[in-house]
Amino acid sequence: MAGNAVRSQGLLKTVREIVRPIGQLVLFSAGSALILSVIALILAFILDQTPVGDASQHTFKMNLLTFTAANLPQVVIDGLTIGFVYAAIALGYTMVYGVLEFINFAHSEVFAVGAFVGVELLIFMNQQGMLRGAPLGLAYLYLILAMAVGMLAAGLLAVGIERTAYRPLRGAPRLVPLISAIGVSFFLQDAIRLTESLATGDFHRIIPTFGNFDTRLSLGKVFIGTAPVNLGISIKSIIVIVAAVLMLVGLNYLVNATKIGKAIRAVAQDRPTASLMGINVNRIISLTFLIGGLLGGAAGVLFALKFTRIDPFVGFFPGLKAFTAAVLGGIGNITGALLGGIVLGMLETFAGAFMSSFTMGAAGAEYKDIFAFGVLILVLIFRPHGLMGEQVGQKA
Amino acid sequence: MISGAASLLRRWSAAALRGPGAYLLVGLHATIGTLLVYSSPRSAISFLILLSSLGTALAVKANAAFKLVVILLLALVVMPVLGMRNIFYLEILFQISVFAALALGLNIVVGFAGLLDLGYVAFYAVGAYLWAFFGSRQYYYLHTEAGTQTGTAPFLLPADTFYIFVFLGIIVAAITGILLGLPVLRLRGDYLAIVTLGFGEVIRVLANNLDRPLNFTNGPHGITPIQRPTIPHFFVDAFNGTFGGLVGKQVRDVDLYNVFFYLFALVVIAVIILVTRRLDDSKMGRAWTAIREDETAAIAMGIPLVRMKLAAFAAGASFAGAMGILFASNRTFVSPESFSFLQSIGVLTMVILGGVGSIPGVILGAAVVVILNLQVLQGLSLYLAALRQSEALIPILNFPWKSVPNQFDPAKYQRLVFGIILVLMMIFRPAGLIPAARRQRELAKDEGY
After folding, report:
1. Is the dihedral of CA A3, A9, A14, A15 positive or negative?
2. Within a domain: residue A1?
3. Is residue A167 in a domain?
4. Average pLDDT of A32-54?
5. What does the pLDDT read at residue B447?
6. Residue B232: cis peptide before it, omega within 30 degrees of 0
7. How far apart are CA A9 and CA A85, in angstroms?
8. Mutation test of the interface with chain B: which of A186, A331, A370, choosing the one with the most B Cβ atoms within 10 A?
9. Looking at beta carbons, which residues of chain B come within 8 Å of A195?
10. Angle at the Cα of A341 (from A208 to B343), degrees rounded to 5?
């Protein structure tokens, strides 16, 4: 009887931990899309009264408000896709920061290694002729296999990095492991370049085309006035979104509903006390890096799938953005990383899409990177603990 | 047996580093180095021997006046004269000086105040672009498309305003530092690192894209030509009159620019060292140390945290600004590529390698990293290129050198070198090659870092 109650309670918890993040996801996506759309529309409306509106009439043959409204749905879809990529990388930063209070600067290279291992496997399979004309089910299987291998490589690398470069420095002042992490990051960038250029002399790789990932699904047309705007999403974007959601749900479940998760949270809260409770702190920290690395590797393969071309420095900007996303959402907080990723991806896509027409071409999409950093600085000034983070006192 | 030999060696080296042996050692080292470079100006090894004699002069226990005379003689007379025989040495010396100055500036921020600045070259870029804009024709190209200039416009300002702009560069960079610092200095250390990294990227993106709507920076093409200050005629004549025989050829003022910039950089470094030392021993320096060691305790002791951090930021930035002006003028060309994240990390590597907070250490760090980049890696690259021309095989592997891909070029692996240096230093010697005096005292007390 009692056992039954406990079990049903456990089941309830499981269900709750799975449903809750999905609900939050939908809420965040819809909310940030709505808010940013409204802001963009208001800006367009205001700018229409200025010479900017006339310029828009001249170039697009419609006023700025119509132009903005017509483009909005596609921008939201693209923003979501990029946002989910950022979120997937941000999860790795946030996991490690939550436990060690340490920015794992080398995470961007862990991500890159994951991408390279996955893509190299696919390239190898392509050379064996396995990918060409593979049936759809098999194509997905291959993709999943590439992701799994990329994840494994990235996870092991992350653990290895922790053992060699971070563990000897535990207990040192904060900046010491950070500098070591920067060193690891730089070392890995060139190490990847070296290994990749050994065989062919080229250090970038392009993911082979196979399956139906490049197909673009049409979601219909939006008519504004007489201008039809095609609305679509490619299958690979859907894969990215689905995979990122799965990663988040899995991670959330692991951290909040399992015994290992409890140990991770205990170590994050208070390391000495956790060790007194019989938790092997070193093992948990290794595990945290492993999980972070697995997530990073998966994100790397997803990134390669979405953007097709990767090079050894591919991790740098996404890594920086993902860190921004993690801080934006409240670093150390898993849901926050997701929210931050979505908001940042959206913001960036909005900026890239509308900046040029809003400023009459004076500042174009090339400023979208600045936009991300601007957001980071603003957030850190006004809400240093992020959108969802709790106020944490500084540990002396 | 081995321990006996080791102790004997130790006794000998101890004798050589003290007493009359020291004078002999320094004199010999400097003379041999000079003669070697003079007789074979192309040899990298002889140049390294000469350069390391500066280190010997610093390391031995001898009369301070004697040390000073030797170092000044080497730096002000021997190096320029030998440099005229092989301009490449002056280029190395100039780069060492520029990076030593940058590293000294970053040392104030990272070493004294304990604020990790990953976008330090941004301030350097501010200085460089300041003189690049005002010291070139760019003002007259404001309304032209990047890359379409014809080069017929006059220069905006006379070349000798360069000297004023060195001071302006200091001021503008310091103001930039304060403007950046104001919002972010309240953050915790690791956040600050990322924000400064972002700021460095922002400056680079701006430099890349501010060719529209008004063409300020000429985008990725970069600004050129930038003016150099005129060298006074008497300086050229005096140099030729005194050292002409030694150099072996009549020196034109174009060549002499290398000497001029090298000496100018030395003057700036001297000023920086003076300022840094005075700052370190001042009330402000003690406040920085307190902040570095424990922020919370520092606040409790009544140290105005944000103001002190701002001062550190501004002081560090101002050095970079001055060096930026010097750099733009020396190269007569600036482009966004010179101010990448790699450069920031390079300067950080110099500080970490030499010793955080230690002035001689940081200069040593700059010298080691620059020589590693320009001499060792480049040398290996040239060697590899020569091997690839030949028919030789790699022993054991039996792999022909010819098939080693181009990407294998050691000169392209700066990141690898910087990365390894950073990690190894952090794990095995976090205080650097020459630890700061204050840190040495701390280390003597307990083993903790």
Report:
1. positive
2. no
3. yes
4. 83
5. 45
6. no
7. 34
8. A186
9. none
10. 75
Q: What is the DSSP string of A161-189?
A: HIIIIIGGGTTS-THHHHHHHHHHHHHHH
Q: Considering only CB atoms, which chain A residues are within 8 Å of B209?
A: 363-364, 366-367
Q: How far apart are CA B335 and CA B327, in angstroms?
A: 12
Name the β-bridge partners of A222.
Answer: A229
Please give the residue range of the domain that contains residue A305.
11-382
In a shared domain, residues B228 and B341: yes
The reply to whether B124 and B234 lie within a common domain is yes
Q: Are residues B59 and B148 in the same domain?
A: no
| Per-residue pLDDT tens over the stretch B40-60 | 777 777 888 888 888 877 777
Which of A185, A198, A381 comes nearest B183 by C-beta? Answer: A381
Residues with Cβ within 8 Å of B215's Cβ and at least 6 positions away in sequence, in order, are B138, B141, B142, B143, B144, B145, B146
Looking at residue B374, what DSSP letter applies? Answer: I
> Between A158 and B249, whose confidence is greater?
A158
Distance CA B4, CA A16 (A): 73
Which of B:3-62 have CB within 8 Å of A? none
Each residue of A166-193: pLDDT tens digit?
999 887 877 788 889 989 999 999 899 8
Whether A287 has a pLDDT exceeding 80, the answer reads: yes
β-bridge mates for residue B351, sequence order = none
Option in A165, A189, A366 nearest B415 (CB): A189
- The rounded distance, in Å, linking the Cα atoms of B223 and B327 is 13
Q: Are B361 and B116 in contact (CB under 8 A)?
A: no
Q: Are residues B26 and B157 in the same domain?
A: no
- pLDDT higher than 60, residue A392: no
User: For residue B105, is pLDDT > 90?
Assistant: yes
- Give the per-residue pLDDT at B388: 76
With both helix axes pointing from N to C terminus, report the angle between B341-354 and B414-428 in degrees, rounded to the nearest 10: 30
Please state whether the predicted TM-score (pTM) of the whole model is above 0.80: yes
B441 pLDDT higher than 90: no
Q: Could you tell me the residue range of the domain that residue B59 belongs to?
A: 13-85
Q: Is residue B211 part of a domain?
A: yes
B415·A187 Cβ contact <8 A: yes
Judge if B391 and B438 occupy the same domain: yes
Q: Which of B61, B85, B109 is the last residue of a domain?
A: B85
d(CA B147, CA B102): 31
One domain, residues B79 and B145: no
Distance CA B78, CA B1 (A): 43
Residue A396 falls inside a structural domain:
no
Number of domains in chain A: 1
pLDDT category, A296, cuts 50, 70, 90? very high
Domain limit, last residue, from B85, B115, B145? B85
Pairwise CA distance, residues A11 & A100, whole Å: 31
Helices (H), chain A: 2-48, 51-60, 64-100, 107-127, 136-161, 175-200, 235-257, 259-269, 271-276, 281-307, 316-329, 334-358, 368-382
What pLDDT is recorded for position B449?
A: 39
CB contact under 8 A, B426 and A376: no
A82-96, A132-146, A232-246, A373-387: the lowest-pLDDT one: A373-387
Q: Are B38 and B121 in a shared domain?
A: no
Q: What pLDDT score was predicted for residue B443?
A: 56
| pLDDT above 80 for A2 | no
To the nearest 10 degrees (0 to 180), the angle between helices B44-59 and B19-39 is 160
Q: Which residues contact B245 (CB under 8 A, 6 or more apart)?
A: none
| Angle subtended by helix axes B189-209 and A316-329, to nearest 10 | 130
Asked if pLDDT for residue B174 goes beyond 70, the answer is: yes
- Asked if B274 contacts B95 with a C-beta cutoff of 8 angstroms, the reply is no
pLDDT confidence tier of residue B15, bands split at 50, 70 and 90: low
Distance of CA A275 to the CA centre of its chain: 32
